[in-house]
């Protein structure tokens, strides 16, 4: 990636620019902008790919919640003066994206969810993660992927340092608890935008049955599974993930030619 972070007021983000429709990529609780390198390269020629940092570690403590993140996203979309966006969210990012889509249906061109929370998730639990236990964090980080080798030492170190920062660790637990409270089962019938669901067959955090439940509850949705893949298909199987997403977006644009 040859992009530099932009900072405008309370917003930090990457943006490829270009005249295409905005594509917003939303990272998970332990994720970051680097999770989407393959998607930036694949889609930047046809879309304005934008990756905002979700302010999990910078919101005032009283606002640390899913609602606070959704409000931040809504403020960002308004700040950028985006008309309609293609949302793609992984894990917690998917959860935030769904809540935003329910609140602002007029702003949504399409939704792509991969390993999204919102119905069921099994991660580090609701208690404070063990501090100064590198092997525990290493195993938890590796469990995000089918192939543990995908979890680089840099990624493990980043998660370890985050957990061992007490201020960040508290925010992680608060955000995770808020996500559990915001179960989407009775809200997903409000989603009217075309929705793509991409799940790893070996996802142990949001297992395949979660993808199936999303598919059953979102009327205009399609579900794809990727084998030998776990919780982050866009990182672990980027070529297959991008192919599925590209085909979906092409069909969305054919259904909505005026948005082209």
Automatic annotation (TrEMBL):
It comes from the Bacteria. GO terms for molecular function: monoacylglycerol lipase activity. The lineage of its organism: Bacteria, Pseudomonadati, Bacteroidota, Saprospiria, Saprospirales. InterPro entries: AB_hydrolase_1 (IPR000073), AB_hydrolase_fold (IPR029058), AB_hydrolase_sf (IPR050266). One of its GO terms (cellular component) is membrane. This is Pimeloyl-ACP methyl ester carboxylesterase. Signal peptide: none annotated. Residues 22-238 form the AB hydrolase-1 domain. Pfam families: Abhydrolase_1. GO terms for biological process: acylglycerol catabolic process. It comes from Neolewinella xylanilytica.
